[in-house]
Amino acid sequence: GAVVSQHPSWVICKSGTSVKIECRSLDFQATTMFWYRQFPKQSLMLMATSNEGSKATYEQGVEKDKFLINHASLTLSTLTVTSAHPEDSSFYICSAETATSTDTQYFGPGTRLTVL
Amino acid sequence: GENVEQHPSTLSVQEGDSAVIKCTYSDSASNYFPWYKQELGKGPQLIIDIRSNVGEKKDQRIAVTLNKTAKHFSLHITETQPEDSAVYFCAEGNTGFQKLVFGTGTRLLVSP
What we know:
The structure holds 2 protein chains of 2 kinds. In chain A, about 0% of the residues lie in helices and about 55% in strands. Chain A has no helices and 11 strands. In chain A, the strands form 2 sheets. In chain A, strands 2, 4, 5, 6, 9, 10 and 11 form a 7-stranded mixed beta sheet that branches. Chain A is globular and about 40 Å long. By secondary structure, chain B is mainly beta. Helix content of chain B is about 0%, strand content about 55%. In chain B, the strands form 2 sheets. In chain B, strands 2, 4, 5, 9, 10 and 11 form a 6-stranded mixed beta sheet that branches. The N and C termini of chain B lie far apart (about 40 Å). The model of chain B has no long low-confidence stretch (mean pLDDT about 95). Classes of the chains: A mainly beta, B mainly beta.
């Protein structure tokens, strides 16, 4: 139980293009989803917290107009990296909380983004 | 602000030995302490967690201890196996605020 998937698992794009990453909770309803970014050999950095049906809450220093988050249903959240640049290349990971265990986060497998 | 220190940053042990990773936090309101295992190129996997109303929790070869007075908690892995090799992250959270603060990670290498 508590399986989270992400799609795609990796993506390569040209500088200036936009990329959408999907995060799905497969066997539970996720009232809250989180988006993290992880650079090589570093810890997870929280980018934003997303509650279903409301605007995402972004962490300090994260540009909300660049990293668009949509959480339209209890099983799907999307992160769109707009006008991507090489410095946006990173490992993006989502997590989700179940409604019954509101502090336990289950993580997706991550998406490797490479911007050329 | 919130801060979690994690030590050591790397840990090498022989198969069968025990491994201990320690984390120290600063927020006295924290009441949830999970541990995650991350293999190369994959997302973190929850391996064990503990809440502030207990001092120790065990699941087969893995145990976590919590000292709320000293604000530190530790992960103990006994009878280590090569497949335990990964990066381990501690985290702390507060049920009321949802988000987790992660430690800096420990790279564990178990040699056969």
